UniProtKB/TrEMBL annotation:
It comes from Ruminiclostridium cellobioparum subsp. termitidis CT1112. The keyword Transmembrane helix does not apply. Keywords: Signal, Sugar transport, Transport. It comes from the Bacteria. PANTHER family: ABC TRANSPORTER SOLUTE BINDING PROTEIN-SUGAR TRANSPORT, ARABINOSE-BINDING PROTEIN-RELATED. Coiled coil: none annotated. This is ABC-type sugar transport system, periplasmic component. Residues 1-24 form the signal peptide.
Length: 530
């Protein structure tokens, strides 16, 4: 996910689509003692916790899109059996709620978030994990990189969380299957065949096909964009080293940190996206959708030829849902990279973390729970279910899931009601990806293999990103807020002349906001962190 987090509202969107359309009802042999993740050996601690008095902890989940509002189902029950802990979640209403809670110091036992790391990484609000580990969970051994990442958010020499979904380049190179959750392009293979199977190997090929679709199928939108991923796949292919993430920072080949709008290739992306719009291959309405279900409705109701979404089993899901809506021949597949030597860049640091707040009523059991979550057993149970019941390990190092699991995974509403694997607090991205690679189509496996082989992990955009309440953070926030609206304005320019005018306006404003000075400051900060 997606940045990797982006990815995570998809399940709730699909559930909404299932309701709207009245449809019927998702290891590795890698050692999960991950260098990129926590490297926990928690079985002993977890067993000890399970024998203690049961504990219920309140957790604030800072993601309004999160799959579930309560931890009930097979996996939550198994976690409680293993750890003795039951989690009572509260899902965020919006993206501002946590900031208000922090400002008033009105916090629950645990906070799971991808924001305000530097503010929460303080003894004013949170317990230091290293102190808790030394007192209550000495066999919990996060990796050096995980600790370095977490310490980068604190002003003292402690770390107050360990980020989930991290993995090293070496782990990805050794992975048996799968890839990170990144942007991907899906398209209708059956429609392509009806068009005579024209080539889809390059972006020029793809653009020509969109024109053919527009002419032959006037009621079909050639390209529909998911609300989260939007045009990310084209940024991946057209802006070398572009890195998805909240900061919008990227590392150049000569190890400088820049805002992605400063990339020399940024204008190529804008021109291509504007060409898609001017030719009528995507709509302005798509940029105004309030939630992802509007785009998904078009996709599963035979109103879209291609769809920007994300890697994994997504094409299989869309095929199943479109066919259930009465389009029996519909077949969605994922596109292979459409540019030579495409690099898929992602942060190797993880994307979200759990903070054990100073309001926590049982910090001992909380750190022991996190130890277990990061362990191999914890990761596999939370992502794959019960070994021997929900999956068995194949000789290829990929879990083979039961029919019940596969059937439930085909309907996200059923999956998160029956199994509820919404425990991403301690996962490794490799463990997650290997599980997602099980039971998917060969096309999906092939595309994930291509992405994994072209994967590049970077950490400096995360480590050197400016902290809250600094001048640099204010400038970066201003830039990103401006770009959020102005980039759409450029992409939706009605003519080449309007495009140039809007692009020049954007460039001038970015310079006035101080993007170049910010990049120089952050590059120096990144060098100091090496």
């Amino acid at each position: 996910m997606l940045s990797e987090k982006v990815k995570r509202k998809v399940s709730s969107i699909l559930a909404a689509v299932l309701v709207i359309t009245s449809l019927a009802a998702c290891g590795s042999t890698q050692d999960a003692k991950s260098e990129g993740n926590a490297g926990s050996t928690a079985n002993t601690a977890a067993a000890g916790s399970a024998e203690k008095e049961p504990v219920t902890l309140d957790v604030f989940i800072d993601f309004p899109w999160y799959w579930t509002e309560k931890f009930e189902g097979i996996i939550p029950e198994e976690i409680t059996k293993e750890t003795g802990v039951t989690l009572k979640p509260t899902r965020a209403v919006d993206d501002t709620q946590l900031g208000i809670m922090v400002a008033s110091n009105d916090l629950p036992d645990l906070v799971y978030t991808d924001k305000l790391f530097d503010r929460l990484s303080s003894s004013q609000y949170s317990y230091a994990w290293d102190d808790l580990i030394s007192q209550y969970s000495q066999d919990f051994k996060p990796s050096d990189m995980a600790i370095k990442t977490a310490k980068s958010y604190a002003t003292d020499d402690h770390f107050y969380t360990i980020l989930n979904a991290a993995a090293s380049q070496e782990e990805w190179n050794a992975a048996k299957a799968g890839c990170p959750t990144l942007a991907s392009l899906l398209y209708r293979e059956d429609i392509l065949k009806e068009l005579g199977n024209p080539s889809m190997k390059t972006l020029d090929d793809y653009t020509k096909v969109l024109g053919m679709v527009k002419q032959k199928y006037p009621d079909m939108i050639p390209l529909v964009l998911d609300q989260t991923f939007m045009l990310s796949i084209f940024k991946t292919w057209l802006i070398p080293n572009w890195c998805p993430g909240n900061s919008q920072l990227m590392e150049t080949d000569d190890h400088k940190l820049i805002h992605y709008t400063s990339s020399p290739e940024y204008i190529n992306f804008l021109k291509y996206a504007n060409k898609l719009y001017q030719n009528g291959y995507m709509t302005a309405d798509n940029f105004a959708y309030k939630d992802g279900s509007q785009a998904t409705q078009l996709v599963v109701n035979n109103k879209a030829f291609s769809y920007s979404w994300y890697t994994g089993s997504t094409s299989d899901q869309m095929t199943d849902m479109t066919r259930k809506n009465g389009f029996a021949d519909a077949t969605w597949v994922q596109a292979q990279p459409m540019v030579d030597n495409a690099k898929y860049v992602t942060l190797g640091t993880g994307w979200a973390g759990v903070f054990i707040t100073q309001k926590n009523k049982n910090p001992e059991r909380s750190i022991q729970l996190m130890n277990w979550m990061f362990s191999e057993k914890g990761q596999r149970l939370t992502q794959w279910g019960r070994e021997g019941t929900d999956y068995t390990m194949g000789d290829d190092g990929i879990p083979k899931f039961s029919e019940d699991w596969i059937t439930a995974r085909g309907d996200e509403n059923v999956f998160y009601t029956k199994y509820n694997p919404a425990y991403y607090f301690g996962i490794s991205s490799v463990t997650e990806a290997v599980g997602r690679a099980s039971g998917v189509s060969q096309n999906s496996l092939d595309v994930m293999d291509s992405i994994r082989k072209n994967l590049k992990l970077v950490i400096s955009p995360a480590l050197a990103a400016p902290k809250e309440d600094t001048d640099e953070k204010v400038v970066l926030d201003q830039i990103n807020e401006y770009i959020k609206n102005q980039e759409v304005k450029v992409v939706l320019s009605a003519s080449d002349a309007d495009f140039q005018k809007n692009y020049d306006e954007m460039t001038a404003t970015l310079n006035k906001l101080g993007v170049k000075q910010l990049e120089e400051t952050l590059t120096k900060a990144a060098e100091e962190l090496k």
